[in-house]
From TrEMBL:
Domain Response regulatory, chain residue ranges per copy: 915-1041
Keyword vocabulary terms for this entry: Phosphoprotein
Residue intervals of the Histidine kinase domain: 580-868
Domain PAS: from-to ranges: 286-362, 425-496
Pfam families: HATPase_c (PF02518), PAS_4 (PF08448), PAS_8 (PF13188), Response_reg (PF00072)
SUPFAM superfamilies cross-referenced by the UniProt entry: ATPase domain of HSP90 chaperone/DNA topoisomerase II/histidine kinase, CheY-like, GAF domain-like, Homodimeric domain of signal transducing histidine kinase, PYP-like sensor domain (PAS domain)
Protein name: Histidine kinase
4-aspartylphosphate: residues carrying this PTM: 970
Coiled coil start-end: none
Length: 1047
C-alpha cells in the first residue's frame, strides 16, 4: 500500500479523513478520534462495521511547509461491540425482571432489543397462546396457536402484524422455517434471499443502519420441554454471524426463557393458591349457606326429639306456630296445633317415628293469619316430616318442614264465594241480554247459533230453539247486501279483532209525518268480535255479534239529505234569478248609457251660440239654427243626458252591490294578492272620478303620509280589485255627500304605513270586527303574506260634506242601512256599499271606521294587511282575476262636455282605422254600439249570433279586405252562443282554416267569476261586463290589440 494513492487504498472512508487532512494542511494541528465508526471492506463485497481510535500528526518540512500527515490507528471494534451487546443484555434483563404478566413481558422484550438496533435491526416475537394458558406442564404434542405478540421494524397494517398459525398445521414460507427451527431446539440462521421469506419482508422499516438484513436468526424459547415462544431477529448486515454473535443471541434467549418460566410458575402458583382458597371458602360458604337458608328461608324448619320436644327451630317456624323464638327450644310442638287437628297430627307423628315414613299433611296452628285486607283466625300449614336415622337404624331426631298455605286457603274460600257470585252474575247477564233492545247472538266459527237473545230473534222473526242452520240470517238480508254479509262473516273468521258492518234487511222501515207516510230500507249496524281457544288466536271458540237498529238514523239522514239538496236547489235558483235579473237590467242599461254618451258626444259638436258644426247630428240641425241663441234648451238637453248617465250608473251600482252581497252570503268572494305599485294603482283608479269632480266643482287631493317614504313603500302584495272596491265606495260616498254643500268642496285621501295594527286615530273609531279572516272560506290573504314582511296599509278619505251625528254613525256599515231615512231621498243609494266595504276589509285582515263632526264633514278610514316586496319582473297596475278580463267599477262615472264646449272625447285620430265585428242578438244594443264605434273611427260590421259571426269571418277571409282586427261577442245569444262561437273560432285556428289568431272580447251581463272564467277558458282574450263606458271598452280593445301585436 506504501506509495499508493490514499483514496484508492481507503475508498470506504477516505471522504471522512480527506476533509480532516485538508483542514490540517491549513492549521497544522494534530487531530484525533475515539471509537469512530468506519465501514471497511475486509472481505470482498462485505462492508464490515469497525471502530478505531486514531490520531493524525502533521508532518512539517524544514521550510515550514505541510508535507503530509502521520496516522496512528487503533482497532477497538471488539471492545465497542462487546460493550454494546453487554449493555443490551443488561438492560433487557432489568426490563423483563420486573414484568408480572405475559403482555408486559412481550412489550419489554421489544423495548429492550430496540436499544441495540444495530445488532437487532429487525425482530418478530411469536408466542404459543394455548401453551401459555395451559395449567401445569402442557404436553409436547398438544396443538397450539402461534400469534405475533411483538415486533421491531414492522409498520402498522403490514401483513406480519396478522401472521398466525397452528403448531399442527404449520404453514409455508416464514411459518414453516420457524417451525423447523423450533423442532431443532437450536438457533437457526435463515437467508432472506429466498422468495418464500422475502415476500414477508417487503415494506419493513429496518432499524440500525437502515440496510436490509441478509440473514435472520430463529431462536426457540423454552419453558420446560415445550417451546412457548419464538424470537426471529435480523442479523446486523455489517457484521458476520459467528460464535460471538451466536453467544449474544443465546444469552438473550436464556434471559427470556428464564423470565418466561418464572412467570408461568408464578401464574401456576397463583392459580393453585386461588383453587385452595376457593375450596376453603366454598366449604365455609356451604356451612354459612345452610345457616342462612334456615334463618332466612320462607319455609319453617324445625327439629324435634322422639318425644316431640323442639331441639331447633328457625324464626319462620316460630312465627307460623305462634311461638316466641327465645322460648322455642324444649317446648312440645303439640302445644302449637289447633285442638281439632291434633288427632290427625298424632297419627302422622306415629308413622314418622315408629314406621320411619316420610309423612305429608295439612294442619292448622293456633296463630292467626293476616295480610292486607285478608284474615283467617288460624294459619293453615302444609308439613313434611321425616326421621333422621343413624348408622344403626335408630331414629335420632325428627325434621319437619312447614309451609304457610293460609293465603291459598283464603283464596280458595274467596274463589268459592266468587264462583257463586259469578253464577248469580251470569244469570243477571242473561236476564239483561234477554231484555236488551239490541240483538245479541253468539255463534261458532261456522255461524251456527249457540245462543241469541229475544231482540235478535225478533229482528228475523225467529223462534227460540228452531235456528239450526249456519248463518241463518242470510235469507232475511236484502238481496243487494247478501254478498256483503258473507264477506263480513269471512273477515271475522280470518282477521282477529272487532269488525263492523251495515246491512239492509228485506223488511221496510216506515214513519208518519202527519198524514204523510215515509218509507225506507231497514238498516242494522253489526259489531262482531271473536273469542279464541288459544293465546295464538288460531282456533275460534265463538263469534259474538251485537246488532243495532239504525233505521231511524238512516231515515233522518235521508230526510236531511233531501232538505240539503232542496236548499242547494233553492240557492241555485236564487243565484239564477239574481243572474237573470242582473242580465235583464244590464242589457237595457248598456243601451241607455251608450245612447246618453252618444247624445253628449253630439252636443259636444254644437255651439249654442253659432249652431251645429260640420258633422253634427241631423236632429241637432233641426233643433238649433245657425242663429239660435236659446242656451236654456241646450242646457236642458245636456242636463237630461247627464241625468240618464247618472241614473244608469246608479242602477248599475245597485246591481253590482246586490251581486257582491250574494257572493259574500255564499262565501264565494275570494282574495287574490298580486304585486302592485300602490301609488300608480290609486291614481289610475281615481281618474274615473275626474269628469264628475270637475262637473261638481269638487277638489280631490291624494297625499302620502311620511311613513310611506320612511318605510320605502313602492311595491306591495295586495288584491287590487278588492282594495279598489273599498276605496271607490268611500270616494263615491264622499262625492255624493259633498256635492250639495256650499263653500269650499274638498276631498282628501291620505295613505300611511304602520308596523303595528292601527286601533284609534284622532276622533275615528274602527267598527268592531264581525268575521275572522282565517275562518271564512276564500278570505285568507294568502300564504305569501304570512312569509313576507307584514305591514298595515291605512287609507283615509276625508270630505267637507254635511257630516254625521252620533245616532247616524251607529247605522253605518250595516246591510241596507243609511245614516237617516232622508239620506236615500237626498243622495240615493241602497245602503249596501259600506256594508260590503266592511266585509271586504275584514276579509283582507283589517278594519274600517268613521270619524265625523256635524259641522266639519266626515273621515272614513280603513286598513288592510299587506307586505312590502321588491319590484317584480312583470306586473299589472290593476290585475284582473282572470287574464285580460276588464270589469267596470261600481261607481257613478260621467264623461261629459264642459260648459265652454271643450270635447271630452272625440274621434280616434291617433291610430289607424280598425275593423271590428260586433256579435249581439239585442238589436237596440247592436245598433247603438255600432254607431258609437263608427263615430270613434272604427270600421264596424254586425252579426246577430255565433253562426252569422263565423260566416262573416269566412267571408272576410275570402275578400280582399282581410280579417277583422277584433271580435266583440255577446255570450248569451240564440242559435249559437258566444262560448260555442269562440270555441269554433279557436278550433278553426288550430286546423288552419283561420291562419291567424283573432282577438275576441266577450261582452256579457253575467258578472259572476265562474261565468267570466268559463268564457276565458273557452278561448276569449278578455271579458267586458255590461253596462260599460265606451271609453273603457275602447281602452280594452287598444290594450288587447297591443298585446296581440307584441306576441
Amino acid at each position: 500500500m506504501i506509495g499508493q494513492n490514499a483514496p484508492d487504498v481507503f475508498p470506504d472512508f477516505w471522504n471522512y479523513f480527506e476533509e480532516i487532512i485538508t483542514k490540517q494542511h491549513e492549521d497544522g494541528i494534530t487531530v484525533s478520534g475515539k471509537a469512530s465508526l468506519l465501514l471497511m471492506e475486509r472481505q470482498a463485497g462485505f462492508l464490515e462495521e469497525t471502530y478505531f481510535d486514531w490520531k493524525l500528526v502533521p508532518v512539517i518540512g524544514d521550510d515550514g511547509l505541510f508535507l503530509g500527515a502521520y496516522g496512528i490507528p487503533t482497532d477497538n471494534t471488539e471492545r465497542v461491540i462487546g460493550e454494546r451487546r453487554t449493555l443490551c443484555v443488561q438492560n433487557l434483563s432489568q426490563r423483563i425482571a420486573k414484568t408480572t404478566s405475559f403482555d408486559a413481558l412481550w412489550n419489554h422484550i421489544t423495548l429492550g432489543l430496540l436499544e441495540d438496533s444495530k445488532d437487532v435491526p429487525f425482530a418478530l416475537l411469536f408466542a404459543d397462546q394455548d401453551a401459555l394458558r395451559a395449567r401445569g406442564t402442557p404436553p409436547i404434542d398438544q396443538t397450539g396457536n402461534v400469534k405475533l405478540v411483538g415486533s421491531i421494524g414492522v409498520p402498522d397494517g403490514h401483513r406480519l402484524k396478522n401472521l398466525c398459525w397452528t403448531t399442527e398445521a404449520g404453514g409455508d414460507g416464514l411459518p414453516s422455517a420457524v417451525m423447523h427451527a423450533v423442532q431443532s431446539s437450536q438457533i437457526s440462521i435463515l437467508s432472506t434471499d429466498s422468495a418464500e421469506v422475502a415476500q414477508y419482508l417487503t415494506g419493513i422499516d429496518w432499524k440500525g443502519s437502515g440496510v436490509p438484513c441478509k440473514q435472520l436468526a430463529i431462536m426457540p424459547i423454552f419453558a420446560g420441554a415445550r417451546p412457548l415462544a419464538v424470537l426471529v431477529a435480523g442479523i446486523n448486515p455489517h457484521r458476520q454471524y459467528n460464535d460471538w454473535y451466536r453467544d449474544f443471541l443465546q444469552h438473550i434467549t436464556t434471559l427470556i426463557s428464564t423470565q418466561l418460566s418464572a412467570l408461568r410458575l408464578s401464574e401456576e402458583l397463583k392459580h393453585r393458591a386461588e383453587l385452595a382458597s376457593k375450596a376453603v371458602k366454598n366449604f365455609e360458604r356451604s356451612e354459612l349457606r345452610f345457616e342462612r337458608f334456615a334463618a332466612r328461608s320462607m319455609v319453617g324448619l324445625g327439629m324435634a326429639s322422639m318425644h316431640g320436644n323442639i331441639l331447633y327451630a328457625n324464626n319462620v317456624w316460630c312465627e307460623l306456630s305462634g311461638v316466641d323464638p327465645s322460648k322455642a327450644i324444649g317446648c312440645d310442638f303439640r302445644d302449637t296445633i289447633h285442638e281439632d287437628d291434633l288427632p290427625l297430627v298424632e297419627q302422622h307423628w306415629h308413622n314418622a317415628v315408629v314406621l320411619k315414613q316420610v309423612v305429608k299433611f295439612t294442619y292448622r296452628s293456633k296463630a292467626p293469619w293476616r295480610k292486607d285486607e285478608m284474615y283467617l283466625p288460624q294459619r293453615t300449614l302444609y308439613a313434611t316430616c321425616y326421621a333422621d336415622i343413624d348408622e344403626d337404624g335408630t331414629v335420632e331426631t325428627i325434621t319437619g318442614l312447614v309451609v304457610d298455605i293460609s293465603e291459598q286457603k283464603w283464596t280458595e274460600g274467596q274463589l268459592l264465594q266468587r264462583s257463586r257470585e259469578l253464577e248469580e252474575s251470569e244469570q243477571r247477564y242473561r236476564s239483561f241480554a234477554d231484555l236488551c233492545p239490541f240483538g245479541i247472538v253468539s255463534t261458532d266459527a261456522q255461524g251456527k247459533v249457540k245462543w241469541g237473545n229475544d231482540s235478535w230473534h225478533d229482528f228475523y222473526s225467529f223462534k227460540k230453539g228452531q235456528v239450526v242452520d249456519e248463518q241463518p240470517w242470510l235469507p232475511y238480508v236484502h238481496s243487494d247486501d247478501v254478498d256483503k254479509a258473507k264477506q263480513y262473516f269471512r273477515t271475522l273468521q280470518t282477521t282477529p279483532g272487532a269488525h263492523t258492518a251495515e246491512l239492509r234487511l228485506k223488511k221496510k222501515y216506515t214513519i208518519y209525518e202527519g198524514d204523510r207516510m215515509r218509507e225506507n230500507d231497514f238498516f242494522i249496524l253489526i259489531v262482531g268480535n271473536q273469542e279464541y281457544k288459544d293465546s295464538l288466536k288460531t282456533v275460534i271458540d265463538s263469534i259474538d255479534f251485537w246488532i243495532i237498529d239504525i233505521s231511524a238514523q238512516k231515515m233522518a239522514e235521508k230526510i236531511l239529505t233531501e232538505k240539503m239538496e232542496e236548499a242547494i236547489r233553492n240557492r241555485t235558483s236564487q243565484e239564477h234569478f239574481i243572474d237573470m235579473i242582473s242580465h235583464e237590467i244590464r242589457n237595457p242599461l248598456s243601451a241607455l248609457l251608450t245612447c246618453a254618451e252618444s247624445i253628449c258626444q253630439s252636443l259636444s259638436q254644437i255651439d249654442p251660440q253659432r249652431g251645429p258644426s260640420n258633422g253634427a247630428l241631423s236632429v241637432a240641425k233641426g233643433m238649433f239654427t245657425a242663429k239660435a241663441k236659446n242656451e236654456a234648451i241646450y242646457n236642458d238637453i245636456l242636463e237630461a243626458a247627464n241625468t240618464i248617465i247618472w241614473c244608469s250608473n246608479h242602477q248599475k251600482q245597485i246591481v253590482d252591490d246586490v251581486l257582491t252581497l250574494s257572493k259574500l252570503d255564499s262565501e264565494l268572494l275570494v282574495v287574490s294578492p298580486v304585486p302592485v305599485k300602490l301609488t300608480d294603482l290609486m291614481r289610475s283608479a281615481l281618474k274615473i272620478f275626474e269628469p264628475e269632480l270637475r262637473m261638481s266643482e269638487i277638489g280631490l287631493e291624494m297625499l302620502d303620509h311620511e311613513s310611506v317614504a320612511l318605510n320605502g313603500i313602492n311595491w306591495i302584495l295586495l288584491d287590487p280589485n278588492r282594495f279598489l272596491q273599498i276605496l271607490i265606495n268611500l270616494v263615491t260616498n264622499a262625492i255624493k255627500f259633498t256635492r250639495g254643500v256650499s263653500g269650499g268642496k274638498r276631498i282628501k285621501i291620505v295613505t300611511s304605513i304602520h308596523k303595528e295594527r292601527p286601533h284609534h286615530f284622532e276622533e275615528l273609531d274602527f267598527v268592531p270586527r264581525r268575521y275572522n279572516p282565517l275562518e271564512r272560506r276564500g278570505s285568507t290573504i294568502g300564504p305569501q303574506l304570512e312569509d313576507a314582511d307584514q305591514i298595515y296599509l291605512r287609507v283615509s278619505v276625508s270630505d267637507t260634506g254635511k257630516g254625521l251625528s252620533a245616532p247616524e254613525k251607529k247605522l253605518l256599515f250595516n246591510r241596507f242601512a243609511q245614516a237617516s231615512p232622508k239620506t236615500h231621498v237626498e243622495y240615493g243609494g241602497s245602503g249596501l256599499g259600506l256594508f260590503i266595504s266592511r266585509q271586504i276589509t275584514e276579509m283582507l285582515g283589517g278594519e274600517i271606521g268613521v270619524g265625523t263632526s256635524p259641522s266639519g264633514g266626515c273621515t272614513f278610514a280603513f286598513y288592510v294587511i299587506t307586505s312590502k316586496i321588491d319590484a317584480p319582473q312583470s306586473s299589472y297596475l290593476q290585475p284582473p282575476i282572470a287574464p285580460a278580463v276588464s270589469r267596470t267599477m261600481s261607481a257613478p262615472v260621467t264623461l261629459l262636455p264642459t260648459k265652454d264646449g271643450k270635447k271630452g272625447n272625440g274621434e280616434r285620430t291617433d291610430v289607424e282605422k280598425r275593423k271590428i265585428l260586433v256579435v249581439e242578438d239585442n238589436i237596440v244594443n247592436q245598433r247603438v254600439l255600432c254607431k258609437q264605434l263608427r263615430n270613434r273611427g272604427f270600421d264596424v260590421e254586425a252579426s246577430n249570433h255565433g253562426k252569422e259571426a263565423l260566416a262573416a269571418l269566412e267571408k272576410a277571409q275570402a275578400s280582399e279586405e282581410g280579417y277583422f282586427d277584433v271580435v266583440l261577442c255577446d255570450i248569451e245569444m240564440p242559435v249559437m252562443d258566444g262560448i260555442q262561437c269562440v270555441q269554433e273560432i279557436r278550433e278553426r285556428e288550430r286546423d288552419g282554416s283561420l291562419p291567424e289568431h283573432i282577438p275576441v272580447i266577450g261582452v256579457t251581463a253575467n258578472v259572476r267569476s265562474k261565468q267570466v272564467d268559463a268564457a276565458v277558458e273557452a278561448g276569449m282574450d278578455g271579458v267586458t261586463t255590461k253596462p260599460y263606458r265606451l271609453d273603457d271598452l275602447i281602452a280594452h280593445i287598444d290594450r288587447l290589440l297591443l298585446e296581440d301585436s307584441s306576441t
